[in-house]
């Protein structure tokens, strides 16, 4: 999959007579291999945009086409399959399964999926890739925040997705660790060639991206090319 | 996948332990309720239907024969014996023709037949005045009643001609003549055979047989008597001893001074004067009532007719009237012709208040009948328990009959319930039992004494019919309306059910419409202990309180129904609670892992994978539960040889499995609602929160939280309220049934057998409810970690936090109480259509239980909440540290072992009890005595030890009494103790041929000689002899007959053939036995004869 195209994307939540508009009429397209940062204050709709792009949620209005295909109109299982094949998610709270070790967490997306590679070798490989080869058997509670986020990244890339979507991946980390996570994402973007979309509060981090999208009150303010080429 | 599930469980150990405990309790509960109690329930159903059944379903009686007691649906025992006619043969035929009636067995109580037996005459040659003492001793079970009648006559000294009774003497009366009364009843042989299997109860003895069509009635015009075919009850129930003694008075009299002496006697007061004189015993004779009856029968069998020994006494017409038996018909005619004098009549009861209403809710007083001067001789101006009724007004019109003996029947072989513990006294084939339980002052009699019939037609207890004839004969003797009751069995009525009841009601109304007679449905009756106060007669002391099993009409149908409802309800509720628990834990599990699932979805899991995950989890626990149940059942099965059918075994396990698998369906459905987007959200999981009150304090805060999470709160409320409702209903039923249940033997049995299972079931449900609440509260606390740590951070005390959580438990409990009690009231309304106004207090009190349950369920989660440390991070309780792992492993293992062990111990203890209780009943059934002495044991005594103790008691009283007919030492013979005229009996110790292998035992051989001299005696050496030592008794190991003469059927030593027996009895006794007694007890020797050996 090479391209994601959003048309008139709108998402609102209705409840108790009030209507909250999270995203208003967004038109965007993303190409594989891009390194994009989405920036904006709280409640600007950046996470909503990310979850819509990641097929976690459905837009109220408008369409998202993945290589001209509207995946969201398909069944839940098909959407899940799509997510498995194309998208890796990284969350602000890491969302590791607390009862599983680092290695097991990395393996979770592969459960009951048929893949052409050896699952275990692949998991160890990605853990090495994120620099955690010695933490295979640790539980999330025994890892530091940065390590946990790296496990989460390993989990996100274990099934070789075309896109990595990260929701404030450095938000819960100190600046130094945040930097390292950012570098890791950058590395993955360059080595694996997968498109990275990440949401952040931090203008400094965002500035390093190829493309910077600024959001406010559910409206896209700007879409410009970042400092680094 | 399995690994994933396992890790998930294993690393959340606290929850896992809860899960395991839940699974254990569910499997143990199911094992007990489905695997074991069902067998128990089956037993009860069988018992109810098979043992407490009367042989008939409906009884038809003439108008006006219901006694006062029937207002309360109570029938007195053997009520049929007190009825006398009222139904015509025509009506009987009408009833027989009604469709659906399988058996219609009429019974016609003809009345009491008197019979007498002459055992010969005394030989008196020496001149003088003699006294004939007739001493009748009747043992009515409470004590002995002795009646002495004196009769004086001169021998060869004074001419009686033209002398009046003022002289106190009358014509010589030399007979050893004994008389008795026996109830004669008419039956329809064919119907009776169908109803109670009378044809099968006929004994094989000589020509004894059942009625055939050719056994007809015949009226002998010449001699004026009815010839009727009869079959005779082989067992006599009256314990009576008659002793006739002849004494020569110490009065100087010879032919010369006779007139002067007799005039002096007259002047001194005649008979009264003679009573004061002493005398010298010339001859004595004694015979028991049984022997008399036996001899009477013997004569009728024809055996005695062959020898023609019956001597008709013709000269004693006048004397008879002085023997206080003016109605002695036999004195006029052949002895084989007897008369029917008295008609049966019922007792008159008056209801009185019970001295112990808890134990005996039904209490009556017997109202004696005051006879006046017009009454027949024996009862003139006396009080009797029943109103004496003559069969004919005029003495000469009294029917005379000649019974043609057809056969003997043995009442104990009838197809009716003979088990004294379950006796339903409706059959009249056995005497009603009555226990003397309290004396006049209300002091208990310990042990209670068993009242026995006295043979008097109008005494408190009557004999069952001693002779049966045909309805045809009864109709010819009694006239138009001979039948007193018809017992009906209806086709297609087999079990105690509403359908049966409907069929019976239909048939009963049909009978009433067609004949105008009254009907009562007796199906589903149960024995009911009632207390009767029996006054003394004729100025005598009152007897006291007698307890009798009466018949409570139709009561067992309601008990049965309620038992069934109760049991199914309780089992159903346990299962419902188990399912709710499984659902609740499934839902809680889902809630706890909702975010996890959202993450899994977001990283590409298919929704179906989540469902599969949940299904697998449930299946694993389900299999675990099934295997645990099977193991428990298997263990119980092996260790207590309880029988469990394969199907039930299979289902017990499968059921647990199914519950768990079904339990996964709701969470599986709920996973559909999980959106992967939830993984992005932070903070509150449930965005919605309802509130009713403004939060102002801890309680309101807890309440708002409780309402906010109303769905899960509802689950815990339901799981608590279901068992609560059932508990309330069950308690109510128990209390309500108290009247019927605990006072009727059946109810007591049911309550004892089923009660525990009910309570166990409720207990199991309540424990499961605690688990459910704990599970839900646990989740609530987990979700509110942040809230709680925040509260701690802002300075809440630990106790306040504890209170916050406990308050939620209390709310669950309160709501559960509300719902549970409403449910209970609805069920009660449905069952009885009435509100339990009286018991409202205690029913409301059961509402406290759910509150307690709610609190107990919350303690654990509350403690967890208190331990949350304000700065504790996420996932702090998840660990894989080796030490902790090990420790927890032990905790899990030991908890499981403890739980399983406790359960198995209880099961092993309980299961054999179930078996034993049943065995115990069977044992009793097996030796169910054929005679009336059997005491009615209450079912609660079925406990084996008690049974043994009771038996031991019986044994002691049998042997301990040294009340023998006579006794002597081994050096003496029967001649030395004045019994030489009747029999010769002696015994001596001889060398034994027995080889005793056992140590501590030795052989004793006794050679005895027994010769009959006055009449026939029955001797069956193997059976009649016992060797007694202290309280122990031994039967002969070996009997060698050395010499025998005139031994008919190997039973009767016949007098006419000079019956004689010499035999050696060999016994095996302990070595230390030095002195002992040899007891000979048979039918003819009444109390038995004891020969003492050694010191």
TrEMBL record, chain B:
Bilayer topology annotation: Multi-pass membrane protein
Membrane spanning residue stretches: 16-35, 565-592, 613-638, 650-671, 714-737, 757-778, 804-828, 840-860, 890-908
Organism classification: Bacteria, Bacillati, Bacillota, Bacilli, Bacillales
Compartments, record wording: Cell membrane
A Pfam family hit: FtsX
GO cellular component: plasma membrane
A GO term for molecular function: transmembrane transporter activity
Residues of the ABC3 transporter permease C-terminal domain: 571-676, 760-868
Protein name per the record: ABC3 transporter permease C-terminal domain-containing protein
């Amino acid at each position: 999959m090479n391209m994601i195209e959003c048309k008139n994307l709108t998402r609102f939540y209705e409840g108790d007579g009030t209507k909250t508009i999270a995203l208003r009429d967004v038109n965007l397209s993303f190409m594989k291999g891009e390194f994009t940062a989405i920036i904006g204050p709280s409640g600007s709709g950046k996470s909503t945009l990310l979850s819509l792009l990641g097929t976690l949620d459905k837009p109220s209005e408008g369409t998202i086409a993945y290589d001209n295909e509207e995946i969201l109109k398909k069944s839940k299982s098909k959407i899940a399959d799509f997510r498995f094949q194309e998208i890796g998610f990284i969350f602000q709270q890491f969302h590791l399964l607390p009862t599983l070790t680092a290695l097991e967490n990395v393996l979770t997306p592969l459960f009951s999926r048929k893949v052409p590679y050896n699952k275990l070798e692949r998991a160890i490989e990605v853990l090495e890739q994120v620099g955690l080869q010695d933490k295979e058997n640790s539980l999330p509670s025994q890892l530091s925040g940065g390590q946990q986020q790296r496990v989460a990244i390993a989990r996100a890339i274990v099934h070789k997705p075309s896109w990595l979507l990260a929701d404030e991946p450095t938000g819960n980390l100190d600046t130094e660790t945040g930097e390292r996570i950012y570098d890791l994402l950058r590395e993955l973007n360059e080595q694996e060639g997968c498109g990275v979309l990440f949401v952040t509060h931090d203008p400094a981090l965002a500035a390093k991206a190829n493309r910077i999208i600024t959001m406010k009150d559910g409206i896209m303010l700007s879409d410009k090319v970042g400092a680094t080429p | 996948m399995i690994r994933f599930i396992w890790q998930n469980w294993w690393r959340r150990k606290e929850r896992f332990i809860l899960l395991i405990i839940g699974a254990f309790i569910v499997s143990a509960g199911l094992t007990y309720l489905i695997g074991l109690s069902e067998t128990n329930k089956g037993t009860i159903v069988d018992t109810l239907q098979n043992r407490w059944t009367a042989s008939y379903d409906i009884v038809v009686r003439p108008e006006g024969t219901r006694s006062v007691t029937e207002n309360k649906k109570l029938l007195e025992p053997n009520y049929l014996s007190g009825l006398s006619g009222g139904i015509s043969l025509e009506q009987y035929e009408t009833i027989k023709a009604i469709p659906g009636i399988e058996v219609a067995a009429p019974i016609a109580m003809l009345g009491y037949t008197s019979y007498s037996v002459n055992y010969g005459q005394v030989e008196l040659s020496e001149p003088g005045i003699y006294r004939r003492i007739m001493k009748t001793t009747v043992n009515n079970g409470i004590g002995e009643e002795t009646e002495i009648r004196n009769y004086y006559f001169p021998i060869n000294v004074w001419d009686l001609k033209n002398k009046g009774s003022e002289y106190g003497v009358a014509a010589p009366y030399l007979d050893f003549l004994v008389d008795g009364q026996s109830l004669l009843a008419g039956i329809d042989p064919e119907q009776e055979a169908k109803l109670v299997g009378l044809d099968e109860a006929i004994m094989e003895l000589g020509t004894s047989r059942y009625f055939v069509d050719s056994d007809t009635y015949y009226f002998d015009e010449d001699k004026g008597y009815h010839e009727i075919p009869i079959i005779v009850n082989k067992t006599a129930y009256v314990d009576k001893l008659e002793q006739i003694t002849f004494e020569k008075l110490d009065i100087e009299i010879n032919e010369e001074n006779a007139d002067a002496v007799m005039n002096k006697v007259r002047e001194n007061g005649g008979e009264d004067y003679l009573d004061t004189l002493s005398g010298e015993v010339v001859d004595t004779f004694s015979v028991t009532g049984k022997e008399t009856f036996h001899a009477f029968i013997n004569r009728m069998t024809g055996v005695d007719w062959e020898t023609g020994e019956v001597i008709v006494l013709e000269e004693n017409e006048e004397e008879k009237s002085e023997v206080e038996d003016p109605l002695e018909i036999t004195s006029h005619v052949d002895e084989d012709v007897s008369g029917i004098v008295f008609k049966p009549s019922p007792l008159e009861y008056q209801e009185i208040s019970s001295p112990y209403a808890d134990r005996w809710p039904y209490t009556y007083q017997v109202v004696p009948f005051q006879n006046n001067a017009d009454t027949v001789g024996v009862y003139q101006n006396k009080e009797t328990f029943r109103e004496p009724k003559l069969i004919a007004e005029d003495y000469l019109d009294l029917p005379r009959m000649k019974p043609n003996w057809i056969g003997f029947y043995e009442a104990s072989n009838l197809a009716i319930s003979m088990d004294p513990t379950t006796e339903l006294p409706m059959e009249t084939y056995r005497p009603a039992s009555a226990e003397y339980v309290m004396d006049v002052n209300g002091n208990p009699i310990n042990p209670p004494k068993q009242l026995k019939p006295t043979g008097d037609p109008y005494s408190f207890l009557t004999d069952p019919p001693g002779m049966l004839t045909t309805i045809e004969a009864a109709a010819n003797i009694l006239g138009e309306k001979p039948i007193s009751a018809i017992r009906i069995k209806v086709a297609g009525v087999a079990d105690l059910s509403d359908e049966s009841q409907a069929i019976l009601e239909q048939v009963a109304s049909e009978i009433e419409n067609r004949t105008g007679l009254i009907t009562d449905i007796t199906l589903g009756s149960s024995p009911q202990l009632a207390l009767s106060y029996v006054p003394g007669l004729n100025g005598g002391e009152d007897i006291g309180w007698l307890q009798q099993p009466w018949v409570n009409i139709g009561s067992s149908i309601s008990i049965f129904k309620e038992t069934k409802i109760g049991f199914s309800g309780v089992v159903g509720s346990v299962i419902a609670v188990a399912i709710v628990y499984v659902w609740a834990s499934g839902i809680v599990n889902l809630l706890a892992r909702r975010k996890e699932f959202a993450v899994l979805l977001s990283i590409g899991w298919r929704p179906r994978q989540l469902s599969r995950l949940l299904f697998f989890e449930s299946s694993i626990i389900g299999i675990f539960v099934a295997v645990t149940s099977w193991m428990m059942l298997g263990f119980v099965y092996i260790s207590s040889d309880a029988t469990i059918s394969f199907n039930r075994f299979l289902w017990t396990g499968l059921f647990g499995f199914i519950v768990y698998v079904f339990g996964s369906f709701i969470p599986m459905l709920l996973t559909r609602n999980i959106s992967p987007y939830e993984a992005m959200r932070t903070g509150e999981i449930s965005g919605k929160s309802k509130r009713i009150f403004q939060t102002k304090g801890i309680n309101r805060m807890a309440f708002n939280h409780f309402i906010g999470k109303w769905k899960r709160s509802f689950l815990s409320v339901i799981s608590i309220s279901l068992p609560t409702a059932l508990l309330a209903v069950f308690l109510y039923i128990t209390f309500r049934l108290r009247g019927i249940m605990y006072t009727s033997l059946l109810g007591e049995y049911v309550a004892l057998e089923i009660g525990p299972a009910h309570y166990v079931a409720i207990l199991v449900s309540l424990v499961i409810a605690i688990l459910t609440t704990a599970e839900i509260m646990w989740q609530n606390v987990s979700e509110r970690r942040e809230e709680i740590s925040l509260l701690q951070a802002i300075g809440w005390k630990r106790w306040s936090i504890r209170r916050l959580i406990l308050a939620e438990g209390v709310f669950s409990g309160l709501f559960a109480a509300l719902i549970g009690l409403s449910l209970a009231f609805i069920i009660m309304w449905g069952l009885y259509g009435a509100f339990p106004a009286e018991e409202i207090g205690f029913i409301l009190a059961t509402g406290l239980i759910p509150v307690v349950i709610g609190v107990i369920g919350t303690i654990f989660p509350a403690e967890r909440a208190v331990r949350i440390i304000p700065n504790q991070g996420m996932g702090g309780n998840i660990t894989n540290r080796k030490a902790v792992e090990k420790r927890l492993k032990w905790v899990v293992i030991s908890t499981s072992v403890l739980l399983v062990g406790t359960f198995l111990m209880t099961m092993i203890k309980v299961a054999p009890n179930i078996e034993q209780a049943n065995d115990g009943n069977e044992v009793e059934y097996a030796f169910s005595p054929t005679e009336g002495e059997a005491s009615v044991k209450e079912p609660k005594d079925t406990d084996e030890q008690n049974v043994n103790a009771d038996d031991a008691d019986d044994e002691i009283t049998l042997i301990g009494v040294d009340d023998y007919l006579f006794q002597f030492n081994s050096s003496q013979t029967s001649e030395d103790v004045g019994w030489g005229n009747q029999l010769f009996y002696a015994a001596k110790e001889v060398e034994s041929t027995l080889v005793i292998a056992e140590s501590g035992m030795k052989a004793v051989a006794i050679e005895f000689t027994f010769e009959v001299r006055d009449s026939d005696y029955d001797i069956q050496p193997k059976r009649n002899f016992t060797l007694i030592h202290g309280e122990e008794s031994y039967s002969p190991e070996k009997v060698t007959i050395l010499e025998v003469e005139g031994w008919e059927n190997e039973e009767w030593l016949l007098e006419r053939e000079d019956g004689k027996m010499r035999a050696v009895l060999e016994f095996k006794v302990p070595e230390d036995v030095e002195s002992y007694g040899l007891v000979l007890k048979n039918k003819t020797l009444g109390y038995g004869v004891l020969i003492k050996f050694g010191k």
